[in-house]
Every structure is written in structure tokens, then in C-alpha cells.
Design brief:
There is one protein chain. The protein is mainly alpha-helical and 1016 residues long. 62% of the residues lie in helices and 5% in strands. Strands 1, 2, 3, 4 and 5 form a five-stranded mixed sheet that branches. Strands 6, 7, 8, 9 and 10 form a five-stranded mixed sheet that branches. α36 links the parallel β7 and β8. α31 crosses α33.
Length: 1016
């Protein structure tokens, strides 16, 4: 015996190791602890010789370790001090003799630690899990209300909670033992909603019992959200609206008796909310949220039917009607609920015909996107991209659009509504099936995450153990932790595409030959949907879709792939009708070009950028319609980088040299110009070019155009003369051209200079005539009619203005500026910069004018007074008739002229002594003045902001309308389009005027101080 004893210990150890290994293979993560628990007397007494059957049953639960631990705790709770084993014996018999009941209990214990805790506190409730059956809504109401009748308030509150969780055991048991939990999801969600409604009914009974005078009122509880839609999750706020009426039907509206009834009704409703939400020894159920009521949390808690109806008819927004899609009676006076629903439900289906429907829809879409905390976005099941809210929003939006004419769509349950939309052809059957499966998985994940601790949470877990439990609860094969994440991500990606697949693609089925599985919208239904997207001419849009997608060609097939996505992008723009029309024109022009549709299909953001540009800018659309091949710049960001001045000159010169006549040469040059203007406009619209870069790019395009126009004009005149011109020519940029600050609507302010070449045999008069002929030809060529924005060459800033010669020799300029130049002409020279022609002549011209624009000693008092007088006269005389001085972007208060003249006075005064001020650009001059201490930091900031704001608005106005905009618009549609271009969100156009006035008003204070020398 003593010799044999040492060999028995390794044998025992071996058996223990073998047992724990077997448990590990059965899915236990801590097999040693599981072995200890299985050997616990509480378990051995329960199962006797059925231990292997118990282990086999535990193996199929979501978390075998948790299920076993909770079973031990339950057994200990049943035996108490160990003297009464009757209740435990009943449980043991159920575990041994009722395999289905055993599985239901163990699956609850393996899925929810919170329900395990409940069973420990209420061990007798195990029978509800073992014998779980699905109660009807009426049966649940009876169970819940019977539990609270005739109890004092505090005990009634405990009873609501305990009874609720007992019934929750049954729902969870059926859910967790379902062979296909995704298929039975609607039953689970419906039971959860019915249980919540029954709890509200019980809470109403308790509230009436504790509220004095409750018999004098009728109160109904309208379920909203998931509770109203009978698709509740395990833990959620329960959204409600309260309706109240005096019990005496003879009470007059607005009378003191009605006001008293509302006071009592408010007390009953408040007591009902406390009955569910307050914490007791039994915990709490969930918050009852009445924030969806009229006026939200600022409105009265209860209202009469008439008061509700008045609000919805007068003030309700579209989202409030969207919320009412799910409204149903859940507790209280059922007849009063019927009256309420009869009154407000018809308004729900009229919402899509409201004037502000499109704007509200856009606002709802923004709300969906904005409610995602950044740090949770990639784990959100509810609010994240591809989450539950995406599905629910799209289904509800389709219901609002089409339910007006089709009553079959008026369901408050998401999956029922989706199925009906598919049956009606509003959604493709294949798409609806994919979305249905994705929604079921997302909701099932949400359910299992919440039931574990009975907490309101919508985030995918990250811990390995939690993911394993989640995957096992859905019966996923392989590595459940890995598979569940992959399945979730795959489904989320499908849902993320839902808006294009669910909302836009069926529009094509109304006009194109698609497969039968796509469903087919009627023209009327398609028109309704396009109108809901913001298309003002749905019939026209349908015609465009038909033209683009008809036929069996490869081109039509690619368009049918592109357009479901692009329709959404067009709809995101301020003018989707114009965008779709322009897209049709460009597509018809380039349809046979092999690279066009391929680029849109394959080049990432090209199609999205094109839709954005065409629906945002008439200017860019018209450029593209005239030069369709310019669409190639959309292929990548490199294509949107503006060309350098040298590159522009090379390309334009090459295009001109291939033509035989000056007119054809300039047509080619202007074709290049259109292409480059489109490049800059697109880069601006998609946010790749800041304002200063836009000005430099547009200036370079105009400068290169003038350069090649000058060369072409010289060549023509020389051909006519049959000899060299005999004089050098220079184009000097003035105004915004000289400052490299051109906008889309800016003219090219210029002066022309010539200088006789050495040894020329011709006299000054002849050379002047020849130079004038060249300049006139240049102006003819640039103004000559063509299919693109003309180059407006304006030479009015030359000496003597329109009365002076069009071109002067360098010596003539010298004489004029030394003898006769007025102060305003010297001021104009601050922006003078050579932009085309002879470079050496340009240097000599700059040397000539520098002493006049940066005079030694600055401005005299008389000169300063002249400038101020001229500015004042401009403000009073040049403002267009009917224009508002406050909002005119150039000549108005705090506008471009105010800022530029203020800065130019500083340059005239100090440019001789401060070299940094010798710049032709406004913003560089402001920065130089700041650095030199001539402007305070706040003054420089205000002037910069005002100049940038006005310049940006002018550019945005031209982009949006395709023609110049000189004042801040008050037209709502124009304001919305312009606001989007400058970076504001949809619906924020109304802020343009107030924002600009604030900026301009602050800048004018600086102008008064620095330009007019007004003391504050």
C-alpha cells in the first residue's frame, strides 16, 4: 500500500488533466474552474448521473463558463441553508428530464449575467425560463397589471420590475434557443415591445392609484420609436407621447376645468414615468422619454387631441411626422388613443407635399451623420456608417415619399415596411433581401450585446471573450470571435451602400430595361421620389435618365451602373436638375469616347466630383458643355493642379501656331482657356484651392491669353506691313490683374506701352500708328465672339482715361506722369505690373512708375484730401441704382473698395520708406503694413477678413449663377447655392447677409480710422 501510493497521485493528476482537457474541448475557457464547479455538491445534487448531459448542454451556450457559474449560484439560492431541497429538486428534475427546458434555462444563463443575477435574487423564476412560451400582448398586460393591483406605490414599483424581468426570462430563453435567431428576430422584438407596453399599462394603473383626482381625466400613452413600431431591443429608452382629456366630455376647451384636467393628467403621466424609471430595491426598468412630443422638452407633458392636432397642422417639422410613422396605442385609454391617431395620422402622409420637405429631408440626413461620436464611429451598430439608423432612415423616407398614394406602405415596423416596399416595386427585390438580412444581423448583435448586462449599449465589443460569446450566441461556425466581426463588417458595408441601392437605383427601373428583380417604379412614383430628392422638374429628370440609360449598348450599361450613385450626389447639390441636364449633355458629346465612362467608373472620386460640380455651378457646367474633353481633369488631384504661367504660354502658343488665321488661332487659344478655367473652377469647388491661389491661377490664364493674343496681333500687322513692326510692345496689368487677384467675373484692366526699336527708319507717328493697330487687333481678337466667357480687356485706367490714346510710348508715359498725372492715376499705378510683351520694356516701365507710386515724402495734404473726396464721390455716384450700400460687395460699406483704398493710401504714404509695401497685391500689402506697425493686428485681421469675404462671395456668385453677382443675394435659392460653395451647409444661405454685414461693419470702422482719419 505504502509503495503503491506514490503511483496513484500521478494517475489522479492524469485523470484530472484529461477531464479538464475534455472541458476545454467542450468550449470552457477555464476548464479547471469548470471542473471544480461541476464537482460542487449544489450541481451534483441537481443532476446526479446526468452530468455528461449537462456538460453537453452547456457546450452549446454562448458562454459555458458563465452558464455553469450562474447555475451553481441558482442552485445555492434555491437550497438556502440546505435544509429545504424541494425547490432545488424540482429544478434538478427539469434539468434531467426536460432537455428542451434545460437548454432554455442554460442558454439564458450563458447569455446574460444580469438575468443570472435576477434568478439568484428570485430563484423561483427559473420555471418561467424552463417553460418559456410566447405570451400575447393581451396576456402580458394581464400578467403585469395583476402584479401591481392593490399594492402601495413602493411595492408596486418593485413588482413591476420583478414581473418584467420574469417575463424577460421567457423572451430571452426563446431567443437564445432559436435555431435561426435572425429569422425569429421580429418575434423577439415584438415580444419586447409588447412587454414594455404591458409595463407601461401597469405603471399607468399604479400612477392612477397614487394620483388624487385621476378619475377626472382620461390619459392615453402613445408608443413611439421602436416601442411604437413593435421592434424594441432589450434595453432602450421607451419613447412616448401622452394624450389627455377631461373625463367629462362636457368640459369646454380652454376652460378652467380643462386646465385642471391637464394639471392632473400631467401628475399621472409624471407618476407613470417614475414608476418605470426610478431606482428601487429591484433596480429600474428604463427611462420613459416624452421628448418627441410637440415642442419637445419645452412643451407641456400632456395635451388634448385638439392641441396636438393644432401643433402638427401649424408648426411641426418633417422629422416630427417621420417620428409619427411608428405611433400606436400602448397604454391607458385606448379609445382616446384611437381618436388621436385618427386625427394626426393623415398628416403624416401629407408631409412629402410640404413646401419645406426637401430641406427637412436634407436636415434629417445631416442629423443621421452628425450623431456619431468620432471615437465610436467604427464600432457603432446604431449610428455609425452602415448602422441600424441608416436602414431605418431610408425605409422611413421611402414610406413618406410613396405612402402618400400607397396605403400598403403605412407600417411602423421596419422589416414589414421594407418587404412591402419591395412587393410594390419601390425597392428592388434583391436589394431588399440583402438589406433585410443585414438589418436582422445588426439587430441581433445589438440584442445580444445588451442582454449580457441589461445595459443600453450599441457598440461592438473589442475584447476577445465578449466577441466569442457574441459569435457563439448566433451559432457561428469556426472561430466565433473572428467570424462575428467579419460578418458585421460585411453587412455594414452592404448597408452603407443602401442609400444608392435602396433609394436611387429603382428610379432607373422606371425608364430603363433592367432585370425583373429590380422592381419597377411607375413614372408617378419615380417622379415623387425625384421631387423628394430636391429635383424641381421630376419629369424632365426622368427624360434625362431615359436618354442616358435606354438601349442595350455598353455605354447604357455603364450609365445604369453609375447613375444610381450619381443621382444621390446630384441630389446633394444645390441644383440637381441642372446637374443632371449638364451630365446628359456632356455624356452625349463624349459617349463614344472610350475613356470618359471608364474614368467615371474606375477613377475613384471622378464621378462624385463631376456630380458635385455640375449641380453646384452653372459657370463650370457651361464651360464643360462647351469643352467636354476638359472632364479629363477630374481623374485625380494632379489633374486639378493649375498650370504655371510658362506652361500656359507654351500650350496656348502651340495651339495657336497650328492654325492658319488669327481668328482660328484665337479660337484655339480660347479653347485652352476654357479648359483651364474649368480646371480652376473644379479645384475651387472641391476645396483644393484657397482664394489667393484661385486669384493667381485666373491671373495666369488671362496673362497667357493676352501674351498669345499680342503675338498673334503683331504677326497679323507685320504680315500686312510685310516688314517688322519696328517697335516693342508691352501689356501692363492694372487693378486685380496687376495684383494677381482676378476673380471669375473680373475684366482685364490694362495699359499698353510701346518703345521704338533702335535703328528703326520710321518716325514716331508711324510707330504710334502701328502700335495702335496691334492693340486694336488684340482687342478685336479677345472680344471676338466665341463659345466661352470673353476676355474683357479694359484700358480705361490709362492716362487721360477714355480721352487719351489707346497706347503710348514709354517716353510719353514718362512725360505724362512727370507733368500732368492726377493723384488717382498715381494711385492706380500701385497695381501696375507687366503681364505680356517685351520683358525688358516691362522692367523699364516699372522703373519709370516706381517714383510716382512710392513718392519720397509720401502724400501731401492736398493729395490725401483729393483721394478722400474721390472715394466719397464714388460711394455716392457709382453705386448702381437700387443697390443696397450695406451689401454691395465692391462699393458698399466695408466692401472691396473700402479695403483696397485704405491699403493703397498706406502704400502711397509709406511705400518709399518701407520696401515690403511695394507690392501690387492687396493682402501682401496688408501684411506688410502690419509688419511695419502701420496697422494693428486686429485692424489687419478685419481688413483681410472683409476683403476675403467679399472676394469669395463674388467668386461663388459667378460660379453658382454663371454671371456676375455684385451684392450679397437675398434670394433663398441663390443664397443656398452660394453658401454651399463657400463652405456652409445646406439650408444656411439665410446666414449670408448677417454674416457679411457683421464682417463689413467691423472693417468699416478700420476704414474710417485709417482712411478718413475719423477719431473714435
Amino acid at each position: 500500500m505504502t509503495r503503491a501510493q506514490p503511483t496513484s497521485q500521478p494517475a489522479a493528476t492524469s485523470r484530472a488533466t484529461s477531464a479538464t482537457g475534455a472541458l476545454a474541448r467542450q468550449g470552457f475557457q477555464d476548464p479547471s474552474r469548470a471542473q471544480t464547479l461541476l464537482d460542487d455538491p449544489a450541481v451534483t445534487t441537481l443532476v446526479g448521473d446526468s452530468r455528461d448531459a449537462l456538460v453537453g448542454a452547456l457546450r452549446t451556450t454562448a458562454d459555458p463558463d458563465l452558464a455553469l457559474l450562474s447555475l451553481v449560484r441558482l442552485a445555492e439560492a434555491l437550497t438556502g441553508d440546505g435544509r429545504d431541497r424541494g425547490p432545488a429538486g424540482d429544478l434538478g428534475r427539469a434539468l434531467r428530464e426536460d432537455p428542451a427546458g434545460r437548454d432554455r434555462l442554460l442558454h439564458v444563463l450563458g447569455a446574460s449575467s444580469a438575468l443570472g443575477d435576477h434568478l439568484v435574487s428570485h430563484p423561483q423564476d427559473w420555471r418561467r425560463a424552463v417553460g418559456a412560451s410566447r405570451h400575447t400582448a393581451e396576456e402580458l398586460v394581464a400578467v403585469m397589471t395583476d402584479a401591481v393591483r392593490d399594492l402601495p406605490t413602493d411595492k408596486a414599483h418593485d413588482a413591476i420590475r420583478a414581473t418584467y424581468r420574469r417575463e424577460l426570462l421567457a423572451i430571452t430563453a426563446l431567443d437564445m434557443t432559436s435555431d435561426d435567431p435572425l429569422m425569429t428576430l421580429p418575434d423577439t422584438a415584438r415580444s419586447l415591445a409588447d412587454l414594455a407596453a404591458a409595463a407601461l399599462e401597469a405603471a399607468h394603473v399604479v400612477a392612477c392609484a397614487e394620483t388624487e383626482g385621476s378619475e377626472s381625466v382620461r390619459l392615453s400613452v402613445i408608443g413611439m420609436g421602436k416601442c411604437g413600431g413593435r421592434e424594441l431591443n432589450y434595453v432602450s429608452d421607451v419613447d412616448v407621447i401622452f394624450v389627455c382629456e377631461p373625463a367629462d366630455e362636457g368640459v369646454e376647451p380652454g376652460s378652467p376645468e380643462e386646465m385642471e384636467a391637464m394639471r392632473v393628467g400631467t401628475q399621472v403621466a409624471s407618476a407613470l414615468m417614475r414608476a418605470c424609471a426610478s431606482s428601487t430595491a429591484e433596480g429600474s426598468l428604463w427611462p420613459v422619454d416624452a421628448a418627441l412630443r410637440p415642442e419637445g422638452k419645452n412643451g407641456p407633458l400632456v395635451r388634448t387631441v385638439a392641441s396636438h392636432l393644432h401643433y402638427y397642422q401649424r408648426w411641426a417639422k418633417t422629422w416630427e411626422f417621420q417620428a409619427l410613422l411608428k405611433a400606436r396605442h400602448v397604454a391607458g385609454d385606448a379609445e382616446l388613443s384611437r381618436r388621436y391617431l385618427d386625427a394626426v395620422t393623415p398628416l403624416v402622409w401629407e408631409a412629402s407635399s410640404r413646401d419645406n420637405f426637401v430641406e427637412d429631408v436634407q436636415a434629417m440626413r445631416r442629423r443621421v451623420e452628425q450623431h456619431v461620436p468620432a471615437k465610436e464611429a467604427d464600432r457603432q451598430l446604431k449610428l455609425g456608417p452602415g448602422g441600424l439608423r441608416d436602414v431605418e432612415f431610408s425605409v422611413q423616407l421611402l414610406q413618406l415619399v410613396h405612402g402618400r398614394l400607397d396605403p400598403s406602405l403605412r407600417s411602423g415596423t421596419t422589416l414589414e415596411a421594407l418587404a412591402t416596399l419591395a412587393r410594390g416595386g419601390y425597392v428592388g427585390r434583391d436589394d431588399a433581401a440583402v438589406l433585410d438580412e443585414a438589418y436582422r444581423l445588426l439587430r441581433s448583435l445589438e440584442h445580444r450585446i445588451q442582454v449580457y448586462r441589461l445595459r443600453r449599449i450599441h457598440l461592438m465589443p473589442t475584447a476577445e471573450a465578449e466577441l466569442r460569446r457574441l459569435g457563439r450566441s448566433l451559432h457561428l461556425d469556426g472561430d466565433p470571435a473572428t467570424v462575428v466581426v467579419k460578418e458585421w463588417q460585411r453587412r455594414a458595408r452592404e448597408v452603407r451602400r443602401l442609400h444608392e441601392r435602396l433609394f436611387y437605383r429603382p428610379l432607373l427601373s422606371a425608364v430603363a430595361r433592367l432585370s425583373a428583380s429590380e422592381g419597377r417604379l411607375t413614372p408617378e412614383a419615380a417622379g415623387d421620389r425625384l421631387a423628394a430628392l430636391g429635383f424641381r422638374d421630376p419629369r424632365g429628370a426622368l427624360r434625362h435618365l431615359e436618354a442616358l440609360t435606354e438601349g442595350l449598348s455598353r455605354r447604357a450599361a455603364i450609365q445604369r451602373t453609375l447613375l444610381p450613385v450619381m443621382l444621390g450626389w446630384f441630389a446633394d447639390g444645390a441644383d440637381p436638375d441642372a446637374g443632371l441636364l449638364s451630365f446628359r449633355k456632356v455624356s452625349e458629346e463624349l459617349g463614344t469616347t472610350h475613356w470618359y465612362l471608364k474614368m467615371l467608373r474606375d477613377e475613384g472620386s471622378a464621378a462624385q466630383r463631376l456630380a458635385h460640380v455640375l449641380s453646384s455651378s452653372r459657370f463650370a457646367s457651361e464651360l464643360l458643355e462647351r469643352t467636354p474633353h476638359a472632364v479629363a481633369v477630374l481623374g485625380d488631384d494632379v489633374g486639378l493642379t493649375p498650370r504655371s504661367l510658362q506652361s500656359l504660354r507654351t500650350v496656348m502658343r502651340s495651339a495657336a501656331q497650328r492654325k492658319d488665321t488669327p481668328e482660328d488661332a484665337m479660337l484655339a487659344v480660347r479653347g485652352v482657356r476654357r479648359h483651364e478655367l474649368f480646371r480652376v473652377a473644379v479645384a475651387d469647388l472641391v476645396g483644393l484651392l484657397p482664394l489667393a491661389d484661385v486669384g493667381e491661377a485666373l491671373t495666369a490664364i488671362t496673362s497667357a491669353t493676352l501674351e498669345i493674343a499680342l503675338e498673334t496681333a503683331v504677326h497679323k500687322v507685320e504680315m500686312e506691313l510685310r516688314e517688322p513692326l519696328g517697335t516693342r510692345l508691352l501689356v501692363v496689368g492694372m487693378g486685380r490683374l496687376g495684383g494677381s487677384e482676378l476673380g471669375y467675373s473680373s475684366d482685364a484692366d490694362v495699359m499698353f506701352v510701346h518703345e521704338p526699336e533702335e535703328g528703326t527708319p520710321h518716325d514716331e507717328a508711324e510707330l504710334q500708328r502701328r502700335a495702335t493697330a496691334v492693340v486694336q487687333e488684340l482687342r478685336r481678337l479677345t472680344a471676338w465672339g466665341g463659345p466661352e466667357p470673353a476676355v474683357g480687356v479694359d484700358a480705361d485706367l490709362r492716362p487721360e482715361g477714355k480721352s487719351g490714346p489707346l497706347v503710348r510710348s514709354l517716353e510719353s508715359y514718362r512725360t505724362y506722369y512727370e507733368r500732368w498725372a492726377l493723384t488717382w492715376e498715381r494711385q492706380a499705378l500701385l497695381r501696375a505690373r507687366p503681364v505680356a510683351g517685351d520683358a525688358g520694356l516691362g522692367e523699364r516701365f516699372v522703373a519709370l512708375v516706381d517714383p510716382h507710386r512710392y513718392p519720397d515724402g509720401g502724400l501731401g495734404a492736398t493729395q490725401l484730401r483729393d483721394i478722400r473726396k474721390l472715394k466719397a464721390r464714388m460711394e455716392s455716384e457709382r453705386l448702381p441704382r437700387g443697390a443696397d450700400r450695406r451689401t454691395h460687395l465692391k462699393l458698399g460699406t466695408g466692401g472691396l473698395s473700402d479695403v483696397e483704398w485704405t491699403v493703397q493710401v498706406i502704400q502711397l504714404q509709406h511705400g518709399h520708406d518701407v520696401p515690403a509695401l511695394r507690392t501690387t497685391g492687396t493682402l501682401p500689402a496688408i501684411e506688410a503694413a502690419r509688419a511695419a506697425g502701420l496697422l494693428a493686428d486686429d485692424e489687419a485681421n478685419l481688413l483681410t477678413e472683409a476683403w476675403g469675404s467679399a472676394s469669395h462671395l463674388r467668386n461663388a456668385g459667378m460660379l453658382w449663377r454663371g454671371r456676375p453677382v455684385e451684392s450679397v443675394t437675398t434670394d433663398a435659392r441663390d443664397a443656398d447655392g452660394i453658401a454651399r460653395i463657400i463652405g456652409r451647409g445646406p439650408g444656411e444661405g439665410g446666414l449670408l447677409v448677417d454674416t457679411y454685414l457683421r464682417i463689413a461693419r467691423q472693417a468699416r470702422v478700420v476704414v474710417d480710422r485709417r482712411f478718413y482719419a475719423h477719431e473714435e
